Amino acid sequence: MPIEKETEQKIFEAAQKIFQKSGFEGARMQEIADEAGINKSMLHYYYRNKDTLFMTVFQSSVKKIMPQLFGTLASDIPLREKVEQIVEFYHDMFLKNPQLPAFVIYEMNQHPQRFKDFIGSMGVQLPEVFIDQVEDAVDSGKLRSITGDQFFMNVVSMCMMPMIARNMVQTVLQLTDDEYIDFLNERRKIIPSVIFNGLII
Amino acid sequence: MPIEKETEQKIFEAAQKIFQKSGFEGARMQEIADEAGINKSMLHYYYRNKDTLFMTVFQSSVKKIMPQLFGTLASDIPLREKVEQIVEFYHDMFLKNPQLPAFVIYEMNQHPQRFKDFIGSMGVQLPEVFIDQVEDAVDSGKLRSITGDQFFMNVVSMCMMPMIARNMVQTVLQLTDDEYIDFLNERRKIIPSVIFNGLII
DNA sequence: GTCTATATAACGATAGAC
DNA sequence: GTCTATCGTTATATAGAC
Hints:
The structure is a homodimer. Chain A is mainly alpha-helical. Chain A has 2 domains: 1-47, Homeodomain-like (Arc Repressor Mutant, subunit A); 62-197, Tetracycline Repressor, domain 2. Chain A has helices at 3-26, 29-36, 40-46, 50-74, 79-96, 100-110, 112-121, 128-139, 148-164, 166-172, 177-197. In chain A, helix 4 (50-74) packs across helix 6 (100-110). The first copy, chain A, is globular. The first copy, chain A, starts with a helix and ends with a helix. Chains A and B meet through helix 1, helix 6, helix 7, helix 9 and helix 10 of A and helix 1, helix 6, helix 7, helix 9 and helix 10 of B. The first copy, chain A, binds a DNA duplex through residues 3-4, 7, 28-30, 38-45, 48-50.
């Protein structure tokens, strides 16, 4: 393994950590360098400037959230299984990377320009298969009247809101870190149950 | 109306706008001054520094979200009405101040220290009345088994997530600004329906 | 109270030796 | 490739005239 790769990788991982913790504006190049255990100049050697380094991290982060989600939505499995897969996926991902969802959502709002360029190029839109699936279920009387958009929004909301608002949740519900993790894990079963038993006639 | 009050008020409103748009780290004192149409030095005359100005805005923002929510939860009305009131309240508030929820949630995560001091002093915790109400409904067989915490989390999630992730939602669902507002307003009826018809046996 | 001018510090970025 | 030293800019904050 060449030394270059190791350094570039160390920088990337450090940048990921600091950007996710502090956001673009709050992150300091010096802090990233310290986290990586290298000199600040190396950041500019491997990545031209703060913007480039940020975009590398941001794009990587989006790719950890989006493709799998839309892959599941476009797949050829029953609606109920799709919901269960998405719920499991997001809760697993959160355990590995607790600050990822809040980071992506926030930076998306802050710099709409920055990401609309590249996010259009990856097919990030609700698959027709999924839309049809919901419509068919409604038409055949299996589900109460609802659009695919609203159905999708309900699932994503129930999953991600407690992850994004961690500090508010822990404060209001007075949970320790461990209790908070337990609280989230309980939701793996609760979410599909609420979604479906609320929609099935 | 004394001139002092007018200036202090103008500064506060400008700061509110800029902080909510850019966050603490992204906000610039100069931009706040420009927005208020006054000299930058005035910011330091009325509010000692950026931190003080921010905390004034942040505390005011929290007070626009929390008390009414917990007031409704603690009130003496049926569970279903509480949910409907909360949903209406959040959707009305969002129309008036679209960036408020994202601002509070994000800054809460960034500076846990900063707000835990003052947020403890305002009774921000789930009212016993509400917890008991959910427990009673479960015990008497009216609702499927669920805790007050999880019930509460479901309502707040369904309401606030689409408001916080506005840019993601509009991108994925390919909605114009007007369509997005319509999409949110539809949820006033959808949310209570999903929550309850999912829980009522 | 409000302004101009300036101090002071921090940050991103670069030059240049090795 | 990696370091030290430093430049240029921008940010918050203050001093002082009016």
